[in-house]
Amino acid sequence: MSDHKVKIGIVGAGIWGSNHALALSTHPKGEVTLICDRDAARARALAERFGCAWTDSLDVLAGSDVEAVTIATPDPFHREPTVAMLAAGKHVMCEKPLATTVADGIEMVRAANAAGTKFMVDFHARWHPLFMGAKGYAERGELGDPVMAYARLSDTIYVPTKMLGWSGQSGPEWFLYPHIMDMVRWIFAREPVSVYAQGHRGVLEAKGIDCWDAIQSMITFEGGAFCTFETSWIVPDSYTNVVDNRIFLNGTKGGLEVRNEPSLWAYTDRFHTPFSSESVTRYGKATGFQYDSIRYFIDCVADDIAPECTGRDGLVVTAMIEATLLSLAEGRPVAISEVLDLGMI
């Protein structure tokens, strides 16, 4: 067995970039060697925390001996570092969403195809044991053909008003929809055909945050299966968890339901359940499904395996969201083919 460790760079030293470093700093097949962030102070602070070099320049990272790069910049800023790293011959994992426009997503996928390196989109919900179990039921045929689904992923208002400094440049559709849209598409194993959406604005705009409060999107898939996707960024802070996530699926033979209600309920200063995105470090490393997908990417690089979450997966989800926004803007059903020809990718 080779003793070679994959040299890793991380772009983005914010909340999720820190989680990338947590996940990868203990990977037996990898070594975090360079942190990049346009905010030099933030890059330096994270690099000092994990004992590696830092830079505020993508050019420096591109020219380094780093082999694999993970991208953890805010939602609207994935294209530039992804394309730059792919052009430099690096293996790249990009956080969801792949991009916030189909045009950017196409450019990223084409850059990956031209580079011939490994390219992955981090849909980490696929690593959650409950969702892996749900996928298993579908794969074994126990649900039959997909008929309908309901999928909700919402956050309390804490996320756009306090947790994220760039929420007005994104929205619940870009921050949350990718998880559940990818999940239902993955379990259905069908491509989306059309979308009709309704939404509400005003609550967050009154707080100076220019984005949607809540959206429901009815998406029809191949074969006539359909799913109502729901997302909101204005769930009251009094809710028991920062995240409200549940999926119900019904097929011709059976159905299933997944909820994010854990078995741990805490009664301290208030009644609550733990926020699943908070870091839990035990037995010498960060633990949780949200770290497993990041480590998987390095496994793919080290063992020369094609990642399962592809750029195409990311691009289809971006198209689903762009079609949702077009439906909201024009008040009509929108065919996915209006924003992306799935037969061309």
Give the gist of this structure.
The chain has 345 residues and is an alpha/beta fold. Helices cover 34% and strands 25% of the residues. The protein has helices spanning 15-24, 40-50, 58-62, 79-87, 102-115, 129-139, 158-163, 172-175, 177-188, 289-303, 311-330; strands at 6-11, 30-36, 53-55, 68-71, 91-95, 119-122, 146-155, 192-200, 214-221, 226-232, 243-251, 255-259, 266-267, 271-272, 281-282, 285-286, 334-335.
Give a written overview of the molecule.
The structure is a single chain. The protein has 345 residues and is α/β, with parallel strands linked by helices. It has 2 domains: 6-117 and 283-309, 3-Layer(aba) Sandwich (Rossmann fold); 126-278 and 313-344, Dihydrodipicolinate Reductase, domain 2. The protein is built from 11 helices and 17 strands. The protein has a 7-stranded mixed sheet, covered by helices on one side.
- The succession of helices and strands, N to C, reads EHEHEHEHEHEHEHHHEEEEEEEEEHHE
Question: What is the β-strand count?
Answer: 17
Q: Tally the helices.
A: 11
Uncertain segments: none
CATH superfamily descriptor of the largest domain? Dihydrodipicolinate Reductase, domain 2
Give the overall form: globular
Tell me about the biggest sheet?
A: 7 strands, mixed
Oligomer: single chain
- For the record, the CATH class of the largest domain is Alpha Beta
| CATH T-level topology of the largest domain | Dihydrodipicolinate Reductase, domain 2
Alpha-carbon distance between the two ends:
37 Å
Physical arrangement of strands within the biggest beta sheet? 12-11-7-10-9-8-17
Helix content: 25-40%
> Radius of gyration, Cα only, in angstroms?
20 Å
Overall tally of structural domains: 2
CATH level-two architecture of the largest domain: 2-Layer Sandwich
Give the strand content: 25-35%
Average pLDDT reading: 95
Helix/sheet category: alpha/beta
